[in-house]
Design brief:
The complex is a heterodimer of chains A (about 280) and B (about 400). By secondary structure, chain A is mostly helical. Helix content of chain A is about 80%, strand content about 0%. Chain B has 15 helices and 10 strands. Classes of the chains: A mainly alpha (about 280), B alpha/beta (about 400).
């Protein structure tokens, strides 16, 4: 039985990671083909760093995901604190409302955002303001779909937190703002960090919403890669994907290690209390 | 690889020294004027400084001081949606034939001022005759063109490849690829049946759809686009229709892959530069179009893309380049002696579009469902099994 379960797990992992491994291997392929092996080379990596279109798209992607993640974290955390303070019924209603963007198919979100932007642009142009799709609209869209994920990762931490700590801080002479910054924020920080990282990775991943809301000067990586499909997708993209995979993997490892450490800490402190 | 690369580099250098006009070398950098234009082109469809060719956009900025914002798309429909839904402005767009005629009909393009595009005189007259989408060239200047033909692997295909009907040959069952877009796929069936691509007769479209269904059930073809490169390269498939220029790319990976144009005639596609309504800097856009038609730029650009150049002089230079790097067969593939029998797509009636979309869905969904059904039944069985397992467990616990 144990052998069987081992084999099963191995198979699942092979299934999950084989495409990525192949992609990484082919990023070292000296032939442009995605199937014929022509020898080992690092050429694509060096060419990647000379290709302005790709680098520009990478820059846009990073700007959008970092800015969107930061804003979404701030808004999401504040929202979570507000939601946590609500009564049960209101909480339920608001949570349903915030969850809708998550279950909503991305293509619907993308198209409706595009419609919204063109209507707003139409109104603005009547006042002589000439705006078009670009980084700003892209960032706004990303903030929109990131917020629910941040709320979802912060709320449980708030629920776990002992409400009386905040009151104690106030009793001990903090004003509400100080109490919030010095007591509440450190308590829920793991949730905030997880939320921010999740928002960041979701933003990097996103294709459909970016596809609809990016403008001529704000093409992101995913949109650029898609546009290469009439001709062959350049192996430079393999190289880039390999680099991105390594980055995301290390980010995830960091998060997980952090979580494990924190859990251990919590266990230790509990055992101390028991003693 | 390095050797080939440096060979290409050297040949380009030699070529550029013998044949470029003097102006190409001694261009001085013009300071930035603060102007900018936005260009919307197909992905990977412009020389970008790789493989030893110049970076066209950078060179334009260098020579004129106008900055280029460059954006790319994957399908004509994508370009159309982006322009229609508003919110973004482009100065130069490069759609294909039928999309241009559709945009002209919907009044989405600016007429060009040829006083600003003197280099348009280099565009081949023979090609212009095939530009039925914009007969007088009022709105568009061709950028690149090509033909659709059949890629085949010599090693496995021993019948003569001279007719579209070989894509229906059961001998090559499971080894045939097809276009995954309706216009190109229907086009093949239409030519096989001897029809025009641009027919608006619903009966013709239905007959073509029937033909495609027969093909699907007989040879079990796969519908793909860019996967053609890898599938033909590693001999997973033996026969596939695709664009002539890309045959050279696949040949680089697998020299057994050859290209043939069927005798029934084929599709000639033209991608052309246009200025959409709403362009904020029409004059700079015309400068850009003119710049692309400079002989040296047109040559460098087309040699990177390896499609056919509409530019008479650049085409001559490109032929030499092809003969040197690929052999004479490549020259024949890219620049055929005659364009007789080639037909260009133009826009269809709206009803025909709708019919074509519906028929395309029918074709794609026709045929063998066994695997899907097995998978669905399997998933259901697993789900039911799991629920039963939970029930039994619960039952036991309650009894215990």
């Amino acid at each position: 039985m144990k052998v069987l379960s081992r084999i099963y797990t191995t198979l699942i992992f092979i299934f999950l990671y084989a495409p990525i491994v192949i992609l990484i291997i082919f990023s070292f392929n000296s032939s442009k083909s995605r199937s014929v092996w022509g020898g080992f080379t690092l050429e694509w990596y060096s060419r990647l760093f000379q290709d302005e279109t790709i680098l520009n798209a990478l820059k846009n992607t990073l700007i959008v995901s970092v800015v969107a993640a930061i804003f979404a974290t701030i808004i999401g955390t504040l929202a979570a604190i507000g939601i946590d303070a609500m009564n049960k019924r209101l909480k339920k209603i608001i949570m349903t409302l915030t969850n809708i963007p998550m279950v909503n198919p991305e293509i619907v979100t993308g198209v409706s955002l595009l419609l919204l932007y063109s209507i707003v642009f139409g109104i603005l142009s009547k006042f002589g303001l000439d705006v078009s799709l670009g980084l700003v609209t892209l960032i706004l869209s990303h903030i929109t779909f990131n917020i629910p994920y941040v709320i979802l990762s912060v709320l449980p931490k708030l629920r776990q937190m002992n409400k009386h700590i905040y009151e104690a801080a106030i009793d001990l002479g903090c004003n509400p703002f100080q109490a919030f910054m010095k007591v509440v924020i450190p308590e829920i920080r793991p949730g905030i960090m997880t939320g921010m990282l999740m928002a960041f990775t979701l933003s990097i991943d996103d294709f459909i919403i970016s596809y609809f809301t990016s403008g001529p000067t704000s093409q992101t990586l995913s949109v650029l890669i898609y546009s290469m499909t009439r001709r062959q997708i350049s192996p430079k993209i393999n190289a880039l994907s390999a680099l991105m995979f390594v980055t995301v993997l290390s980010l995830l490892l960091i998060v997980n290690i952090r979580q494990i450490r924190e859990e251990n800490k919590a266990k230790n402190s509990k055992s101390i209390v028991k003693l | 690889m390095k050797k080939v690369f440096s060979l290409i580099l050297v040949s380009v250098l030699v070529l550029s020294i013998c044949s470029l006009p003097a102006t190409a070398q001694d261009t001085e950098e013009v300071p930035l004027t603060g102007e900018s234009i936005t260009v919307y082109n197909w992905g990977d469809y412009i020389a970008n400084g790789e493989d030893g060719f110049i970076d066209v956009n950078k060179e334009f900025t260098k020579r004129t001081g106008i900055k280029v914002n460059y954006d790319t798309f994957a399908t004509n429909e994508e370009l159309y949606t982006k322009l229609k839904s508003g919110g973004s402005y482009y100065d130069v767009i490069i759609p294909s034939d039928y999309m241009i005629s559709k945009m002209i009909a919907e009044d989405m393009l600016e007429p060009l001022n040829y006083d600003n595009i003197p280099n348009a005189k280099f565009i081949s007259e023979e090609l212009k005759e095939h530009c039925g989408f914009d007969p007088e060239g009022k709105y568009s200047v061709p950028y690149a063109w090509g033909r659709v033909g059949i890629l085949y692997n010599e090693k496995y295909v021993d019948d003569p490849v001279d007719s579209w009907s070989i894509l229906w040959n059961q001998k090559y069952k499971n080894k045939i690829l097809m276009f995954d877009n309706p216009r190109d796929a229907f086009g093949i069936a239409q030519k096989k049946l001897g029809m025009s691509f641009n027919t608006n007769n619903p009966e013709d479209w239905r007959a073509a759809a029937e033909e495609l269904k027969i093909q699907k059930s007989n040879v079990n073809c796969q519908y793909v686009m860019d996967q053609i490169f890898s599938k033909m390269g590693n001999e997973e498939a033996y026969l596939a229709p695709y664009y002539a220029g890309d045959a050279l790319t696949i040949y680089g990976d697998n020299p057994n892959v050859k290209f043939a144009i069927p005798k029934e005639g084929t599709n000639l596609f033209v991608d052309a530069m246009c200025i959409p309504k709403g362009s904020k800097n029409k004059e700079a856009a015309e400068k850009y179009i003119n710049f692309i038609c400079e002989t040296d730029i047109a040559f460098e650009n087309i040699s990177y893309i390896n499609y056919s150049s509409p530019h008479v002089k650049a085409a001559e230079m490109h032929k030499e380049y092809l003969a040197e790097n690929f052999g004479d067969w490549a020259v024949e593939v890219i620049y055929p002696e005659t364009l007789d029998g080639c037909e260009t797509f133009i826009a269809l009636d709206n009803e025909t579009y709708q019919l074509a979309d519906r028929l395309w869905l029918e074709v794609r969904n026709s045929g063998d469902y066994t695997l899907t059904i097995i998978l669905v039944i399997g998933a259901l069985a697993l789900l039911i099994g799991f629920i039963v397992f939970l029930r039994i467990k619960k039952h036991r616990r309650e009894n215990a």
